[in-house]
Amino acid sequence: MRLLLSGFIILGTLAIAACGNNSNNTAATDSTAAKTADTAVAAIETNPLKNCYFGDLHLHTALSPDANIMGSTLMPEDSYKYALGETVTYLGNPVKRIAPLDFLAVTDHSEYLGVVDQVKDPNGLWAGTAMQRQWSSTNQDTIAKTFGQFIHGVKTNTPDTALNKKEAIIKGWDILQLAAAKYYRPGKFTTFVGYEWTSMPSAANGGSQNLHRCVIFKGDKVPELPFSSFDSNDPENLWTYLENARTAGSDVLAVPHNSNLSNGLMFDTKTLSGKPLTKEYAVRRMANEPLTEMAQGKGESETSPTLSPNDEFANYEVMETLLNSTIRGKTSSGSYVRQAWGTGQELQEKLGANPFKMGVEGGTDYHSGITTSEENNYPGSHATQDDLAKNFKELLVQKTSIGGEAPIKLSASSITGVWAESNTREAIFDALKRKECFATSGGRIKVRLFAGWNYNGEMTKQGDWVKQAYAGGVPMGADLPAGTGKPKFLVQALKDPNSGNLDRIQIIKVSTKNGKSTEKIYNVVWSGDRKVDAKGKLPAIGNTVDVAKATYTENIGSAELIGYWEDTDFDPQAYSTYYARVLEIPTPRWSTYLAAKHGLPVSKLVPTTIQERAWTSPVWYTPSK
Amino acid sequence: MKKILSEPLFQFFILGVILYVSVTFIRSRTESASREIDISRERVASLITGYQTQLGVLPTNQQLEDLINAYIREEITYREAKKLGLDKDDEIVRRRLSQKFEFLQSDLEEIPSPTEEQLQAFYKNNPELFSAETTVTFSHIYFNSDNRPDTIVRRQALTVLQELTTSGKQRAPEKGDRFPLQYDYTDQSLVDIKSNFGDKPIADSLFKGKTGTWLGPVQSGYGWHLVYISNRNEHTLLPYEAVKEAVKTKYLEAEKEKQNRQAFEQLSKKYIIRRNYLEEK
């Protein structure tokens, strides 16, 4: 405790210095950035068959009050530098990505956005006030008290009027926009202006129910203020804000995250205000929220071993303890994406529209300011809460944290893969909107999925198969148009050259008929000469990991997998959602790399090896009436 | 009686008594004050928020009782330790205080905005800071090692290498397996290679290997390759206009470092430092 809080004091002091410098630089250099962006536009190459770009759509910096209190000092400009592959100093140590990202959205909390930084600013709005003395205090009791007040305010939706100052939030919002403008390099690196709307209404048992959404704007023209959960914690009111922004000429979408921590609310069959879902609700939700976050630092949201007992890969980075508590959330319904795809189809049968027809993306949700999603290059993600360089010994055994779960359980995950014509805001945003994107558990697995009625197994052997696939069918994220026969699929996955080989590609089908949904997993293509059994199960690939050394060999698995699959179980009367899941061979988890680096025993709280993966957005089939 | 009162010796005696009584009284007051520990409402509240901060939940009554007892214990031992002077000559206490001072004292003064001349001079004097990265342009042949032993794949690649060395060809993707990405790459930096091929031996070959000849086989994250480097642009100084922004940033960083160093030098001048260990015995 004492140690932790003294960390806050030091980093708090640094934050003041960092903040001042950054805002000065931003203002001074903005006009030059705009000029270089203009000149670059003309030279951008586009690929109609689309390139794969990787990025993070969910990241917090010292502008987020919680991150700031945890001792984060990095600002949005640092986030972009790190994503670009530059060296950044994190908690006193140099850090650098092995493989840079292609795009990034910094999404700080809109509640008190940038305010904590300004409260500490000796020349800011709070200069000389009692509040500044309290927030800048180096007394550990005062700091603890301040944090307690902040958390309470957000959970109960009672903003502190002295902090919730419009002029201060505008300043934070400006910093986000200026950093995005400064680092946008059309054709090379894309930035998005965004933020996080942090609704977390309390459940009857006192647990916070995560209904958070990241808001991503297409362009740089954005509303004067972000919409915060203090304005309303009901997503339907957030949609009104998004719709107004669109009317005013700023296209925008919202991405829900951590449905796994929503206590069953994220994909509930009634609205937050308790009304039954309607066709209008479904249409509106999909217009505003075409995607959902499949995985992130605080666990994956695909499915759980309880919901999918026949899925031997379901027990992957599962987290079900509600935020800021030790309460286990409700996960029997409304919390996982695979199940929600079925629920959505059941509602579609009744209402005529599917409220949960969403594609998937991935984000880190790190509160460090940097997307450190590389398993073998993970320095921690929540500043002084999990500073691996300093507190590795404690962190390997620590069982709780501010967030509830042990820091060792946090995932080095995840990022978004996008299939777009070029690396520009327009092309990437449009790809997100049409759901031609996927999530990975942190690595850069490139996965393609196409569906059509007339594909055949020979196509994948031809050099122009992607062109043929687009011409004769649809990619991930789209609706399979009406057709005859059985749906056919083409899938390709290319490994992350900095991670393990590939084990297999599966297609997972969620079907609904007469109000009843079922899920089935098909192994489509795999490495080696393994054979599927009568039930369609494929033997495990094996495990080459040397846990003590945190190494693995690549004499199992494949660099590339490409395959063709026909749904021979197809029922034209049933609604169906099809998505692909790619699995890597087992590799060490970050916690295993950490233990090996320091010659310490591995953590008993988490598995030593994991099978990293990618999840595509689905293709949907709707029976014709 | 009057006589006794006017006796100086007696007056001294009375004065002594008064002095003794008052000193004893004051000392006992301060002594007992330093032996009083008040657990105020605010103190308890801060213990609760501290607990909540760490664990995310409120303490139970029993836990709160424990927290208060732990606080009392810490306070008593802290005071006793201070009385014994344990804070003196303690390595950790010293370092913490020194760090705290350094953090508070650094970056105190704003650096004046640099003039164009200052920036130009800084750019000229620090060419290593403003040079472009080395890039390579190359073609490669891919040998897939999925489910095949590396020895066989390498032997196959070596056969192709021999054939190519005499052929004079600079591009021959058909001699290997189908590669799912490109066969030809232009102006790739080290970080591009690490992203596209992995942080593997191929990166070293491309940036250190001989140009204008076939090299390999070298390993990437995907398998084995033969590479032909047609051109390597060694890092060159970037034009001033293109890096102006970076020049300013680096200049300010350098100035800040200088300022902090000078501030310390200034401070250290107030001290006389005797390096006695250097004196001969």
Question: What do you see in this structure?
Answer:
The complex is a heterodimer of chains A (625) and B (281). With 625 residues, chain A is of the alpha+beta class. Chain A has two domains: 2-198 and 206-272 and 290-372 and 412-439, no CATH class; 445-621, no CATH class. Chain A is built from 14 helices and 23 strands. Chain A has helices at 2-41, 65-69, 76-83, 115-119, 130-136, 140-155, 166-183, 235-247, 279-288, 337-351, 388-395, 425-433, 465-472, 590-598; strands at residues 51-56, 88-90, 93-95, 103-106, 190-197, 213-217, 252-256, 291-296, 299-300, 359-362, 415-420, 437-440, 446-452, 474-475, 488-494, 502-513, 516-526, 560-566, 575-584, 587-588, 609-610, 613-616, 619-621. In chain A, strands 1, 4, 5, 6, 7, 11, 12, 16, 17, 19, 22 and 23 form a twelve-stranded mixed β-sheet that branches. In chain A, strand 8 (291-296) and strand 9 form a beta hairpin. In chain A, helix 1 packs across helix 7 and helix 3 runs parallel beside helix 7. The longest helix of chain A has 40 residues, at 2-41. Chain A is globular, with a radius of gyration of 24 Å. Chain B is of the alpha+beta class. Among the domains of chain B are: 2-33; 41-83; 132-233, Chitinase A, domain 3 (Roll). Helices cover 56% and strands 11% of the residues of chain B. Chain B has ten helices and four strands, in the order H-H-H-H-H-H-E-H-E-H-H-E-E-H. Chain B has helices at residues 2-6, 8-33, 41-55, 61-83, 91-105, 116-125, 150-167, 190-197, 201-208, 240-268; strands spanning 135-144, 184-188, 214-219, 223-233. In chain B, helix 6 (116-125) packs across helix 10. Chain B: Keywords: Isomerase, Membrane, Rotamase, Signal, Transmembrane, Transmembrane helix. Chain B: It holds the Pfam family Rotamase_2.
